[in-house]
TrEMBL record:
InterPro entries per the UniProt record, alphabetical: FAD-bd_OxRdtase, FAD/NAD-bd_sf, FAD/NAD-binding_dom, FAD/NAD-linked_Rdtase_dimer_sf, Pyr_nucl-diS_OxRdtase_dimer
Boundaries of every Pyridine nucleotide-disulphide oxidoreductase dimerisation domain copy: 336-438
Descriptive protein name: Flavoprotein oxidoreductase
Listed GO MF terms: oxidoreductase activity
Length: 457
C-alpha cells in the first residue's frame, strides 16, 4: 500500500515540497494530496502590486502552475477551496472543510507537510464590517482589491496603513492607477527594513511620486458610511478614504500547528531542523512563511517571510520526504524593492540588529553613481555598509539608488554569506564598463570607506 503525504497549503513551499517528493517517488509508492483554501496554487504573491497597478496585464501571469497542471503532470491530488481546520497527530489525520460544498473531509496521512504561510497583522480597529478594506497576502486578496478598484465609479482616495514592503509597493500601484494616496506610518518614517538614514531617501522619493506620507501617526479606527469605509481615524485627525490597504506586516500562520501541539519558537514560527523536519514530531515537516529559521550573521532565530526562502525550504523538505538528503542553510535577509524608479536593497543586519546581537561595528555611507559619471543616464547611488570592529567582517549592507542599484545588493549578499571582510571586498574583481559602472564600482567605494573607518586612530 502506498504511503500517503498530506500537504497543507498549496503555494510556494507546499507545492515545491510535493513536486520534489513526486519526482523521487511514483504514485504506487507515494500518494500526495494537497489542500489549498484559495482558488490558486503556486503563484507569485510578490507580483500582486504590479498586477494591481496595471504593469502586469493578466492575473494568470502570476500563476506558475495551476491545479490542473499538478494533477495531470505531477499526479498530485490538489483540492482547492478546501481549508484544513484541524490536525490530529494521534490519529494521523487532517480534517478539512470544503468551502464551496460545506462538507467535512477527513484524510489520514503517513507524512504531513505543513505550509500554511503567514497571515496579515490585523489590529482590533481593522475588524470592521465596512467594505473597502483589504489586505494583500494572497492572490484571492488581490482579486478582491482589483474588483473594488475596477468598480464604476472607481475609488479616488486611498489610505495605505503601514510602510513596509507591501505598503510602499501598494502606494506606488495606487498612484499609477490615478488615486490620491496617503501612507500612514506610526514610526518616524516608512521602510523600517533599512536604517533611518537610508529610509529617508525612500520617503523623499515617495513624496516626489505624489504620495502624502504621515509619519508618527497611529490609526485608531475606521469609519464607514452606507456599509463602506469612508475615513481612517488617527490620533492626528481623520483622513478621507474610499479604499484602505493594510500593510502592517505578517506573522506566521501557526494556529493549526499550535492547536495540534507542534513546537513554536521565539519568533512565533514553527521550529524545524536543517532538513525542515518539525522538531520532535516524527513524520511532520514544515516550510515557508510559517517557520522560523536561523540568521547566518546574528546566529539568532528569525522569521523572514519571503517567497525565495519558501521555495528553497519546500524543495529541501520534498527531497527529504522523497528519500533524498538536503538541508536549508539559513538566511541573511536579502531583499529588494522599488518606489517608481528608485531601487532599494538590503542584506544582513541593520544597525539596531547588530546592536541587539552584541556586535561592535562601524557604519559608513558612500555616495557614487550607477554608471560612469560622463555616461548618459548616470544617477546617484547610496551604499551603506556595517562592518564588525575590529575584524572588518561585513555584517550588513543597504543600497538606495536608481537604475542598476537594487541588484548590486547580490554582490554584497555573496560577500556576507561567505563571511568576507570589507578589506577582502576591496579586491573583488567586478565588471566595469562605462554604461554599467564607474571604474570604481559603488560596492568597492563603500568597502574602501569601511576599511578607512576601521583603521586605528
Amino acid at each position: 500500500m502506498a504511503e500517503r503525504l498530506i500537504v497543507v497549503g498549496g503555494d510556494a513551499a507546499g507545492m515545491a515540497a510535493a513536486s520534489q517528493a513526486r519526482r523521487r517517488r511514483n504514485r504506487d509508492d507515494l500518494e500526495i494530496i494537497a489542500f489549498e483554501r484559495g482558488h490558486f496554487t503556486s503563484y507569485s504573491a510578490c507580483g500582486i502590486p504590479y498586477w494591481i497597478s496595471g504593469l502586469v496585464a493578466d492575473r494568470e501571469q502570476l500563476v506558475a502552475r495551476d491545479p490542473a497542471t499538478f494533477r495531470e503532470s505531477y499526479d498530485i491530488d490538489v483540492r482547492i477551496r478546501h481549508e484544513v481546520v484541524a490536525i490530529d497527530l494521534n490519529r494521523r489525520e487532517v480534517i478539512a472543510m470544503d468551502l464551496d460544498g460545506g462538507t467535512e473531509v477527513r484524510e489520514p496521512f503517513d507524512t504531513l507537510m505543513y505550509a500554511t504561510g503567514a497571515v496579515p497583522t490585523k489590529p482590533a480597529w481593522a475588524h470592521t464590517g465596512g467594505a473597502g478594506v483589504f489586505g494583500v497576502q494572497t492572490l484571492d486578496d488581490g482579486s478582491a482589491l482589483r474588483e473594488w478598484l475596477d468598480a464604476d465609479p472607481p475609488p479616488r482616495q486611498a489610505v495605505v496603513v503601514g510602510g513596509g514592503y507591501i505598503g510602499v509597493e501598494m502606494a506606488e500601484a495606487l498612484v499609477l492607477r490615478g488615486l490620491s494616496v496617503t501612507l500612514v506610518e506610526r514610526d518616524e518614517q516608512p521602510m523600517s527594513t533599512v536604517d533611518p538614514d537610508m529610509a529617508q531617501l525612500v520617503t523623499d522619493a515617495m513624496r516626489g511620486l505624489g504620495v502624502t506620507i504621515r509619519t508618527g501617526v497611529q490609526v485608531t479606527a475606521l469609519s464607514e458610511r452606507d456599509g463602506r469605509v469612508c475615513e481612517v481615524v488617527t490620533d492626528d485627525g481623520p483622513i478621507p478614504a474610499d479604499v484602505v490597504i493594510l500593510g502592517l506586516g505578517v506573522r506566521p500562520n501557526t494556529a493549526l500547528a499550535e492547536a495540534a501541539g507542534l513546537p513554536l519558537g521565539p519568533t512565533g514560527g514553527i521550529r524545524v531542523d536543517r532538513r525542515m523536519r518539525v522538531t520532535g514530531v516524527p513524520g511532520v515537516w514544515a516550510a515557508g512563511d510559517c517557520v522560523e529559521t536561523l540568521h547566518r550573521v546574528s546566529g539568532m532565530p528569525v522569521h523572514v517571510p519571503l517567497g525565495t526562502h519558501a521555495n528553497k525550504q519546500g524543495r529541501v523538505a520534498g527531497i527529504n520526504i522523497g528519500g533524498g538528503y538536503a538541508t536549508f542553510a539559513g538566511v541573511i535577509g536579502t531583499a529588494v524593492t522599488k518606489v517608481c524608479d528608485l531601487e532599494v536593497g538590503r542584506t544582513g543586519l541593520r544597525e539596531r540588529d547588530a546592536l541587539a546581537a552584541g556586535f561592535e561595528f562601524v557604519s559608513v555611507i558612500a555616495e557614487s553613481t550607477n554608471r560612469a559619471g560622463y555616461y548618459p543616464g548616470a544617477r546617484p547611488m547610496t551604499v551603506k555598509l556595517i562592518a564588525e570592529r575590529p575584524s572588518g567582517r561585513l555584517l550588513g549592507a543597504q543600497i538606495v539608488g536608481w537604475s542598476e542599484a537594487a541588484k548590486r545588493i547580490d554582490t554584497l549578499a555573496v560577500a556576507l554569506w561567505n563571511r568576507m571582510t570589507v578589506d577582502d571586498m576591496t579586491a573583488l574583481d567586478l565588471g566595469y564598463a562605462p554604461p554599467y559602472a564607474p571604474v570604481w564600482d559603488p560596492v568597492l567605494v563603500a568597502a574602501r570607506k569601511a576599511v578607512d573607518a576601521l583603521a586605528p586612530r
